[in-house]
Amino acid sequence: MTQLLLETGIKIAIILGGMMTAAAYFVLLERRMAAWVQDRIGPNRVGIPGTKVRLFGLGQPLADGIKFILKENYTPAHVNHALYAIAPVVILTAALTTFVVIPMGSLIPHFKVGVPQVGVVDSGHNVEMIAAPGIDVGLILIFALSSIAVYGVILGGWSSNNKYSFLGGLRSSAQLIAYELPLSLGILGVVLAAGSLDIDTITKAQAVQGWYGILQPLGFIVFLIAAFAEASRLPFDLPEAEQELIGGYHTEYAGMKLLLFLVAEFLHMIAASFLIVQLFLGGWHLPFITGDLDNEKITWFTAALRIGVLQAKIFGVIVFFMLVRWSWPRFRFDQLMSLAWKIMLPLGILNLVAVAVVQEFTKPETLNGKVIAIAVGWIVLVAGWLCMALSNPLVTDNRPRRDLSLAEVDAQI
């Protein structure tokens, strides 16, 4: 029991430290990418504090953190103090807890380490790269935690007693509920093909059947777009929308409380990137590179290679998230809702039905089964796109709606 608690504690400490550090430096990366897109220099001056060493601006996250910590912990007099303080804690806790069921790699080989005043610490077995191994309903737990995070946004918007914050909270709740369904349908296709709700099992199934991003391209696109919306990243950042709502649900927040909201937003993006890679892009698997699935034969080299492959894929997806943010304009709210209910939901159902038919009448492990699954997947993608384009040609029309009254326009805002 002591060894289990020690192992779990070390894993949680590594995940907490790694995620918080990653969130800080991804902020710097995004600022540099924004500068590159906008043809300016970006943050490149802050280096080691107290010295003139700049290190290409790598000290910027530390400076930003100190700035937030030293700011006055101001609470407006008109807010509901208890809920106002709880909201950022709820959203950050839910965002961090999500990572306990997300694998950070495959396995680490059995090892023994000599620790002063303790003796030899023996792992006793190959160590799984997940904080809470053995939970075979990991995807359900992730959905439950992401639903709890919504309460943080709603509480923050309501307790601020500010109309912009309240509108941001309402927008966020409507958006998250609308895109939960396509997100679930995208995952259901994967669960149906792998026969499990465990993320590690799904990754291993892709090593045998092929990456689901290739076998189920329509499900992959549906999940990707829904993940953008769930992470509230541009073009889906309607809950914040600085030009319309100032800052949305965190308009009245500052200092450390605002920092918790901002960190949670980046953690949502990182968690979405993990899920995209683990569910559709093979996770740590790379054909002919990362070895077979025999757990007993794993070496330190193979374990490091698998971690490197997984992290490289996740980094690529996060860079894609950032490029989209600084390249696409924001949707109108009616367009956002139309996209969810009129486009994403039918396409998600279509993909699920197609996957069910393929699983029923083919054997995905065989070569013929893989060829049939890939052909059906891409035919369904083209057919779905044509049907949506013909049935809803104006769903993303950006021209002003001059047929609406002022009351109808206000209702959409």
List the keywords.
about 425 residues; mainly alpha; two-stranded antiparallel ribbon; 14 helices; 4 strands; about 5% strand
Architecture overview:
This protein is an all-alpha fold and about 425 residues long. It has helices spanning about 1-35, 60-70, 80-95, 140-160, 165-195, 200-210, 210-215, 215-230, 240-245, 255-280, 300-325, 335-360, 365-390, 405-410; strands at about 105-110, 110-115, 120, 125-130. The longest helix is centred in the N-terminal third of the chain and has 36 residues, at about 1-35. It starts with a helix and ends with a helix. The mean pLDDT is about 80.
Quick recap of the structure?
The protein contains 14 helices and 4 strands. It has 413 residues and is mainly α.
Strand arrangement across the biggest beta sheet: 1-4
Mean pLDDT: 82
Percentage of β-strand residues: under 5%
Output the helix-strand order. HHHEEEEHHHHHHHHHHH
Number of strands: 4
Which class best fits the helix and strand makeup? Answer: mainly alpha
Major beta sheet, specifics? 2 strands, antiparallel
Cα Rg: 23 Å
Number of helices: 14
Low-confidence stretches: none
Helix content: 55-70%
**N- to C-terminal distance:** 55 Å
Q: What would the principal axes of the Cα set say about the shape?
A: globular
